[in-house]
Specification:
- It contains seven helices and eleven strands.
- It is an alpha+beta fold.
- The protein folds into two domains: 67 residues, Winged helix-like DNA-binding domain superfamily/Winged helix DNA-binding domain (Arc Repressor Mutant, subunit A, Orthogonal Bundle), CATH 1.10.10.10; 156 residues, Chorismate lyase-like (Chorismate lyase, 3-Layer(aba) Sandwich).
- It has a six-stranded antiparallel sheet with strand order 5-6-7-10-9-8. A three-stranded antiparallel sheet has the order 1-3-2, with helices on one face. The chain has a two-stranded parallel ribbon with strand order 4-11.
- Helix 1 crosses helix 3 and helix 2 crosses helix 3.
Length: 254
């Protein structure tokens, strides 16, 4: 170990290198505190701090009574919040990229007009994009935007700024509703997301409001094996329980 770094950081670097080189695979068990104390000649406090920080940073998952395991790096989104996918990915320490497949001005027909609460034939913009995390596709964004709300929409470079970030800049989001469904995607979605034929997808169906009216309607398609939705609700006026005092649902294994 490099003597110029604190011992806990040296221990963290060692475990991260094991993960990065593939010597430790997702779901593999990581050496326990006792094993690290014996094999690396560190104190129990040092081993505990290293594992605790690796857990906080998402490299490992500590499961009470079972041990510490390498995280599976599954992409996550908060079920109770509307977030910019680029921000979600960046917060995980990963790289977001986006590819625009289609953009056009259309006339609202059928469910699009109903979803946006406008007359059939109203001008809307249609956007179709693929979002990637570390070059792996994790979301197809199929979005309709009320043209009168964001008239400059088609002029934006959505490979630099996501539609979510752009639209929030046009006017603040007032409210949103969303539903999550399991679905067997069509051939085009499978191809865009590099999914096998037998894999289901998670589809988030979302409407957002601004200036007192619905302004966007979107279907967000995700590979079922590479994405999950999480949420934590705290009633108004109630302090959130410290994470160390509650069971972390994502740590419960099937």
């Amino acid at each position: 170990m490099n003597g110029s770094k604190p011992r806990y950081q040296q221990l963290k670097d060692f475990i991260i290198e094991q993960i990065a080189t593939g010597k430790l695979q997702p779901s593999d068990r990581v050496p326990s505190e006792n094993e690290l104390v014996e094999s690396k000649s560190v104190s129990r406090m040092t081993a505990n701090r290293a594992l605790r920080e690796l857990n906080d940073e998402g490299y490992v998952e500590r499961i009470a009574g079972r041990g510490t395991f390498v995280s599976d790096y599954r992409s996550r989104s908060d079920l109770l919040e509307v977030q910019n996918i680029a921000d979600e990915i960046t917060c995980r320490g990963h790289t977001h990229t986006c590819r625009v497949l289609h953009r056009s001005l259309q006339h609202a027909r059928g469910e699009i007009g109903i979803a946006l609460n406008v007359a059939q034939g109203t001008d809307v913009f249609h956007l179709l994009l693929i979002h990637c995390e570390n070059a792996t596709p994790i979301q197809v964004e199929d979005r309709y935007v009320l043209a009168s709300f964001a008239p400059g929409c088609l002029e934006q470079d959505f490979e630099v700024q996501t539609p979510s970030a752009y639209l929030t800049g046009v006017a603040p989001l007032q409210e949103a509703e969303q539903a999550v469904r399991a679905s067997m995607p069509n051939a085009a979605i499978r191809q865009h997301l590099d999914m096998p034929d037998d894999e289901p997808s998670l589809v988030v169906i979302r409407r957002t409001w601004s200036e007192g009216r619905p302004v966007t309607f979107a279907r967000l398609h995700h590979p079922g094996s590479r994405y999950e939705l999480t949420g934590h609700y705290t009633p108004p006026g109630t302090s959130r329980t410290a994470s160390g005092d509650v069971v972390q649902l994502e740590n419960l294994r099937q």
